[in-house]
Structure formats: structure tokens, C-alpha cells
TrEMBL record:
GO BP term, pick one: bacteriocin transport
Subcellular location: Cell inner membrane; Cell membrane
Protein name, as recorded: Tol-Pal system protein TolQ
UniProt-listed InterPro entries: ExbB/TolQ_transport, MotA_ExbB_proton_chnl, Tol-Pal_TolQ
MotA/TolQ/ExbB proton channel domain sequence ranges: 82-210
Membrane topology according to the record: Multi-pass membrane protein
Length: 225
């Protein structure tokens, strides 16, 4: 078997020590899961952004609030986060406004609390599994480094029984150990990039939700006069 065959990636993985192979298997599984969540989060964020833009167009087009509310209630499964925030606030506003001898400020405050509770749930749903990507990005390189260190230690222990250590004897052991670090980086880099990108997008959506809640509260306050 020639040197190129000895140092092929598949050969290095198959001939690594049990501990290094275990580390590689963990990193490969984590990498697969992170890519699954990356694609899932990409679709989730894109859908949330599209639904938010659509509702903003409908809301600011000057339509009747009651009509928008009925549309949100009738199509609850197809509504976006901002529409559900609107639905919660308007439902609470309507309920409190019908009560007699209730201060207008209390009506608006109740509507704001309802919107804030729904806002928190919606942001938590969009933000789900983002912490997993952060953990993969921060921990995977160290797990890979552990596999590398262990593999190199294993190689040098094997060399203790050899009379003369040559490059051909040392290279395969060190190379197979370094594969663990490479797999760790392969798992970590996409997770870090995706986490930063999605965090930015979710922060922008959260800001739009908060701005809408303030503007909608002002509209409701004007209706109380």
C-alpha cells in the first residue's frame, strides 16, 4: 500500500483509534443535526419575514381593524407572528372596552400586555434551536482538538516500541488525529455563520414587532377618545 493510500481520508478514519473514531462520530452527528436546523431555521425566518411584510401592507393600507381581526381569527393557522400579535391585542382591547367604568388607560395597558405575551411566544418560537447552533459553533473545535490530542498521544505511545521513528511511521498517526480537528471545524464554521446570520434576522423581526405594538397601541388609544 503506497503513501497516498495510507493517507487517504477514509483510510485515516477507519484506522484511527477507538477514542478518535468515537469523537469523529459525535462530531459528524452534531454536524448533520446543525445542518438540519440551519435549513429548518432558514425556511422559518424567511416565512416569518414574508408574512410580516404581507400583514404590514394589509394593516397600513387603511383597512378596517374589525375586518383584519376577523381575517386573522378565520385563518389562524396561516397567519404570521405580527398578525397574531395584532389579534391578541385587538381581542383584549375589544373585551376590556366593553366593560363599563374602566379607565381608558387600563384598556390600553391590558391590550399592550396581551400583545407583549404573544410577542414573547412568537419570538421564542422563531428563536427555537438557535442556542444549539451556538453550542455547536463554540464546542465542536474543542471536541475535535481533544480527538487530535488523544490521537497524537496514541501515536507516540506506539512509537515507543519502535527502534527508529521515521516520517513514514509518524505521519499516518498524526494525520488521522488531525482529521478530528478538521471535522470539528467543519461542524463549527457553518454553525457560527448561521447563528450570526439568523440572530441578526430575528433581531430585526423582533424590532419590527415592537414598533408595530407601539404604533398599534397609539391607534387604539386614539379610538378611546
Amino acid at each position: 500500500m503506497n503513501v497516498s493510500q495510507d493517507l487517504s481520508i477514509l483510510h485515516l478514519i477507519l484506522n484511527a483509534s477507538a477514542v478518535v473514531q468515537f469523537v469523529m462520530a459525535i462530531l459528524a452527528s452534531v454536524s448533520f443535526m446543525s445542518w438540519y436546523y440551519i435549513f429548518r431555521k432558514w425556511f422559518t425566518v424567511r416565512e416569518a419575514r414574508t408574512q410580516t411584510e404581507q400583514f404590514e401592507r394589509d394593516f397600513w393600507s387603511g383597512g378596517d381593524l374589525n375586518s383584519l381581526y376577523q381575517s386573522a381569527v378565520n385563518n389562524r393557522h396561516g397567519t404570521g407572528s405580527m398578525e397574531r400579535i395584532f389579534e391578541a391585542g385587538f381581542r383584549e382591547f375589544t373585551k376590556l372596552r366593553s366593560q363599563k367604568n374602566l379607565d381608558p388607560k387600563d384598556v390600553i395597558d391590558g391590550s399592550r400586555r396581551a400583545m407583549r405575551a404573544t410577542y414573547q411566544r412568537e419570538v421564542d418560537n422563531i428563536d427555537a434551536h438557535l442556542a444549539f447552533l451556538a453550542s455547536v459553533g463554540s464546542v465542536s473545535p474543542y471536541v475535535g482538538l481533544f480527538g487530535t490530542v488523544w490521537g497524537i498521544m496514541h501515536s507516540f505511545r506506539g512509537l515507543s516500541n519502535v527502534g527508529q521513528a521515521t516520517l513514514s511511521a509518524v505521519a499516518p498517526g498524526i494525520a488521522e488525529a488531525l482529521v478530528a480537528t478538521a471535522i470539528g471545524l467543519f461542524a463549527a464554521i457553518p454553525a457560527v455563520v448561521a447563528y450570526n446570520r439568523f440572530s441578526h434576522e430575528i433581531d430585526r423581526l423582533a424590532t419590527r414587532f415592537e414598533s408595530f405594538m407601539e404604533e398599534f397601541s397609539n391607534i387604539l388609544q386614539r379610538q378611546m377618545r
